[in-house]
Specification:
The protein is 12% helix and 38% strand. It is mainly beta.
Amino acid sequence: MRFAVSLALTTLLSLTACRGTEPPYSPGQAPLVEDLLAAAAPRLQSIQVPRAKVRQGKGPAANLMMLAQHPDRFAGTIQLAGNELVSLAVNEEGYGLRWIGRGDAGLEPGYYSGPPSRCAVEALLGVDLETEAFVDLVLGGAPILETPYEIVDRRWDRKQARELLTLANDRFQQELGFAWSGTEWQFAGSTLWRLEGSAKTWLWSVSHADMHTVGGQTLPRKTEIRQPKPQGRGELVITVTYEKQIANPGFGELASDPPTEGEPDNAGDQWDEGEDGWDEGGWDDGEPEPEPEPEIPEPEPEPEIPEPEIPEQFLGKPQGLKARGDLCAGR
């Protein structure tokens, strides 16, 4: 009898595992594609991460500090045993990479700089992603295919408990995964393939985990990035664990100059009068002079809007290092 009850429970648990998790919505009430794509947008405009750990595979974890500002500004420093190993600053005009490590890693110590390139982020973290894509991930979002793309599929995955949305354009196919928090959809992970005829080549997969609230927005405490190893054997896993996150920090934006204290708003404006406030020429009884034609004022030129300055936090710092040129030239 006891054996029969145990067998029945085992069978029930197996069937439950096979069925997986039911969708959090009724039949015909699946979320709109627009709502899912909105959930994949970055949650913040900028972030400061004073403390994080970055680990490649099962290797030792290194200390990581970074700043990110949407859409394409990033700065990060990796330290080992409290010593700077590599620092990177990227903005819309270029990148600057400080390499302090030993030359046996394939790079001579020095300062590398050039126009924006995805290889700069790869040199820092070993992640083959465009700067904009990596910034989106750090801000809690997902890199999305360039338009135009089409919706290939959308379905609930019971095993993963994820709503899956598949997009494709003429070069790539991307699957986005979303988790239901109980109140809203949250981006949970994505995979990208390159399309080559009827074949697909896996490029990378990312996932967010351990979600929590930062600055009123939901962000991950951990992001995992997986991609094929360059030699084609196995996969490379990069794990970033955020130990502290500060939402939307200030980067020293310039404010407009305030007016001089005590100076009235109309300072410098004067009424040209005589001594007693009347024209000293007196009353003219002659023929009235014709009234001059009114002058049509010329339109004032449109004020020039200054280009936003790049905060110094996202500028490279070559001080103390030998210039090595563009690490990413030809890549």
